[in-house]
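User: Can you predict the 3D structure for this chain?
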Amino acid sequence: MSDWAEPRDFKEWAKRVFGLRPILTLILVSSIFILELRFDWMERILGTYLVTTNSERPESGAIWEKSHQTRTAQQTLEQILTDRQTLQREARSAATFTQIAANVTPGKGVMLSADHFRQLYLRLAPSFAYEIISPFDLLGIVNDGRWRRTYFEKSDAGLMIYLLDANNRVLRQLELGSMQLSQLKRGEMALAESLDELSIFKNRVYSADRFFNALEAFPEDVRRSMVPQPETLLEIPGQIMRVGISDETQSGFIELGFEFLNGTERRVVLVQGHEWAVWRLRSNLEGLDMDNASSQGGNQNEPGKLQ
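Assistant: Here is the predicted structure, written as structure tokens:
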């Protein structure tokens, strides 16, 4: 018990300090410290323990928040890149200006080569192409040799087109308004050879006989609203084989497509009828067979009729 008492003199104090047990304790502590500095075994043991209990600990703290923000940013960036790649791929496969306008979303744009723009331009009818840019002006830009790429961007009014050089400097800025895009769409559809090529008439294509039989059920003034200026159809050579009716309304009008057969050649002619009149015509077309079926069923069940 005397060892726990306060040393009485320096000799007893030195004896306790330089005794076997203090020296062994000092060596042990020093060894642990040196081994820790050399092998980092305490950090390794602590890290292993934290890894094994990681799933049981709540996701809180600055490190977790930073990790969540990093993962969210990576996912957002991947989604942006995927959407941009998809948009660019669809634009490169586009065959018309209206297809590009339909794929481009507000605030985003697509980049095409100068040659691709020229291909799209040459597919247009001359009158429509001139509304975008004069062929003489485009020829001058081509011969200048600086035009490398074309950037398309959606705007509130329609579609903006920028002709760019190798350093993305704007050589010419073009604008297609919503009215011009609508006219281009009609002109592009008119180049079709069959109603089956035009998605706006899907499941709404009728034989010519059925269409004109339904048309005869209405008075002259109503028919003029359904098919304005029918004289233009008389000027087209060939016979009308089928008629398609769109379900899309544009400024109070609905598109009708007449498929002509002239020998072995087919072509589609587009006409715009008044919305209210075309809906009456379509209701007649769709309800004609149903009315016949209903009347036949009613006759069969009517009392006093011979079976």
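Confidence is low (pLDDT under 50) at residues 289-307. The radius of gyration is 41 Å.
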